[in-house]
Amino acid sequence: MLEIRSLRKVYGGHGRQVEALGDVTLTVPEGQFVCVVGPSGCGKTTLLRCLGGLLAPTSGEVEVAGQPVTGPPDGLAIVFQEYGRSLFPWLRVAENIELPLKSKGVGRAERRRIVDESLTAVGLGDAAKAYPWQLSGGMQQRVAIARAIAFQPKVLLMDEPFAAVDAQTRADLEDLARTVWQRFGMTVLFVTHDIDEAVYLGQRVVMLSASPTRVLEDLDIDLPDKRDQLATRSGTRFAELRSHVYSRIQEAKIARPGS
Ligand SMILES: Nc1ncnc2c1ncn2[C@@H]1O[C@H](COP(=O)(O)OP(=O)(O)OP(=O)(O)O)[C@@H](O)[C@H]1O
C-alpha cells in the first residue's frame, strides 16, 4: 500500500542545505499499523509530508496504492500534532468534520450520517454543535481523528498526534487509534518521539538513523493484537522490545556526527 524507495530530501535556500532524509526505503502492506521513531530532527515529519504529497522528494520514489505521489493522494488523511491549528475555530465540530466530505461531493443526508458515526466512534457523540475552542485539547484531537475517519481513508498518516495532551488523555487516544484502525481497517503510519507509544501501538516499529537518515531497523512487534495499557505495558515482552528500541535510538544519537 505504501512504497518508499531510496527517498532523499534535501532542503535548500538561504545558503544552507539540510539533508533531512538520506536514503529511506520502506514498504507498508495494506492494513498494517506501522510506527516510525528516530532521533529528533531525523526527518520523520519530512517522510510523512513526502508520503502525503505535501513535499516533493529530492530523489527516490513514493507510491500510495500503486500510484506515484505527485500531490495529496486520494484516500489519504493526515492527523497532525497541532489540533488547535488543524480545526477551524469558526466552524462547529460537525461542520469541521463535514468540510472534506462536501469537497468530495457527498450529499447532505449521507454527510450527516457519516459525521454522527465518526463522532460516536471517537466517543464524542454529543459534541457536534460545540465549537472546537469549547473543548479540551484531548477532545479537539478526537475531533481531528473523527474528521480523518469520516473521510474513509485507505491510508491514515499520524504525525505525533498525541504529543500535546496529558498522559491520561494520551493513553485513551492511543487506545482510540488502535480501535479505529481495527474497526475501519486502514493502513496507518504513525510517527512518534515516544518509544513506549510506538511499541504499544504498532505491529512494526521502524527505527530511523540520525542524518544522513536511513532505516536503522524494522522490528516486528510480536505482542498480542489485543493490547491493554496496564497488562501490555507491564509484560516482559513489552519491556524487552522497548529496551531494544531505546538502545538502538541511543546508538543512533551517539553515531550522529558532531553530537
Ligand atoms: N521547511 C524546511 N526548510 C529547511 N529545513 C527544514 C524544513 N523542514 C525541516 N527542516 C530540517 O530538516 C530536518 C528534519 O526535520 P523533520 O521535522 O522532518 O524531523 P523530525 O524527525 O520530524 O523532527 P522532530 O523529531 O524534532 O519532530 C531538520 O534538520 C529540520 O531542521
UniProtKB/TrEMBL annotation:
<keyword id="KW-0813">Transport</keyword>
<dbReference type="InterPro" id="IPR050166">
    <property type="entry name" value="ABC_transporter_ATP-bind"/>
</dbReference>
<dbReference type="InterPro" id="IPR003593">
    <property type="entry name" value="AAA+_ATPase"/>
</dbReference>
<feature type="domain" description="ABC transporter">
    <location>
        <begin position="2"/>
        <end position="235"/>
    </location>
</feature>
<dbReference type="GO" id="GO:0016887">
    <property type="term" value="F:ATP hydrolysis activity"/>
</dbReference>
<dbReference type="InterPro" id="IPR003439">
    <property type="entry name" value="ABC_transporter-like_ATP-bd"/>
</dbReference>
<dbReference type="Pfam" id="PF00005">
    <property type="entry name" value="ABC_tran"/>
</dbReference>
<dbReference type="InterPro" id="IPR017871">
    <property type="entry name" value="ABC_transporter-like_CS"/>
</dbReference>
<dbReference type="InterPro" id="IPR027417">
    <property type="entry name" value="P-loop_NTPase"/>
</dbReference>
<protein>
    <submittedName>
        <fullName>ABC transporter</fullName>
    </submittedName>
</protein>
<dbReference type="GO" id="GO:0005524">
    <property type="term" value="F:ATP binding"/>
</dbReference>
<keyword id="KW-0067">ATP-binding</keyword>
<keyword id="KW-0547">Nucleotide-binding</keyword>
